[in-house]
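Predict structure. Input: tRNA threonylcarbamoyladenosine biosynthesis protein TsaB, 231 residues.
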Amino acid sequence: MLLLSIDTSTRGCSVALHGDAGLLANYELYTDRSSSAMLTTLMSTSVEHAGYTLKDLDAIAVAKGPGSYTGLRVGVSTAKGLCYALDKPFIAINTLEAMALQVSPFFSKDFLFCPMIDARRMEVYASVLDGDNITVEPTKAIILDENSFQNLLENHKVVFFGDGAAKCKPLFEQNPNAFFISEEIRPSAKTVGKLAVKSFEKGEFEDVASFEPFYLKDFMTPPSRKVSPAV
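Output follows.
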């Protein structure tokens, strides 16, 4: 098995290559506008440096969202184009589930994990998963306030992380069951690939033609500031 994974859910992009022996290559670039400009370069570099060509791939995986509208569109369209060109299966992985996999191995099984992606103002994209990466609360857009997650915090220790977690820290930091990670946890193709390997083994593939990114909410364009000419 040789599987290429892509993540462009937020600012920047990352690419990972997994084989039967595990992770073979991983490149991450977190700079503005790096998704569209550098993604194809990182993909080619990952495969070539591992001693393969794109034709050797058995499947292509992508982080499907939630996240940046533009970033998701770039990642998904690139992955779909590659699947079309190479006639390879297409795998889509929830971005938040992949983020949780970065953190959960470092905590005991009695913790819950809440990855968060900033969605502007006091809104975040969030999900809650247990130590086995099983969903406890489904992925949704949440406007944070003092009552958010209180039902879980009453009986569970919850770890909050991701670039949206800073918004909820002032709200929950006095709760003894709320834990925050000081290190920034970004979406990564490395854990997208780990989950994609399991999907590949189960034969869980997406239809390339009909698949759409998991935007979670409609893309909102700002109102036009163009002034109508006086009559």
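The domain at 96-180 is CATH 3.30.420.40 (Nucleotidyltransferase; domain 5).
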